[in-house]
Design brief:
single chain; 270 residues; alpha/beta; 5-stranded parallel β-sheet; two-stranded antiparallel sheet; 16% strand
Length: 270
Amino acid sequence: MFRGMGWPYKKISGFTSRTQGPTLIIAISYVRSMITIIGTGHVFNLAEPVSFIVKNTWPDAVLIELDKGRYESMMNDYNGVKPKGEQKSSTIYQNTARYQQKMSEQNGSTLGSEFLAAVNTGKLLNAAIIPIDTDAMRVMNEMWEEMSFKERTRYRLSSFKDSFGGAKRVESTHKQFAANEEEYIEGMRRRYPTLVRKLIDERNVYMAEQINTLSEQYHNMVVVVGDAHVEGICKLLKDEHIRKIRLSDMMDREKMGKIRQMVWDGRETI
């Protein structure tokens, strides 16, 4: 990448022989402004494919679905820095975090490992690292306060069932979502209207606004968000050239192979 120009370096094409010795020829591709948005599942082991996509996209900015506080906490954990003082969080936030951590372990992963992979790979490429989400704890607290008694009860029962379902239940939910995303979201909206509004709709708007603003400064961005946010965010983006990489495709070995080739070739679609 030539920084500030938004033109990604693509690959080494070969060598030529001259009397002075071998000369390295580098093929440079100049591409239009593009946003690559990667839909992930935070409890799945996706560090390697996410790192590959970031590395071979050569972005000038990597945007992640974390707020500043969660980003700093993740990097402190990674660097072995202990937090100062007592870290306070609400019960619902703690319960959600514990459940996600448990599911990550059952899937042989670490919670949010795809974010860490994107960040570390981006830093190696000298890309800007930008957290674009709103305050997660505040949103969770607002969601709980705004929920009706009926919706809270449904949420508690669902959480109880999830605690026994383990990784198999997570995998089943992922397959249902991938089979018919729109139908799944609308079903969730009927049962949990406040949850969908606070955790998906409003955050989609917030993150899309961040991306649109940053697109005026950066021309080749990789955005890493939960898969349920991809379509909602894309509908709100101004950029015409958006490359979407979905969780279901990354979980499929054959499709992931095609994604690797697409990224390597610099194409928008498989």
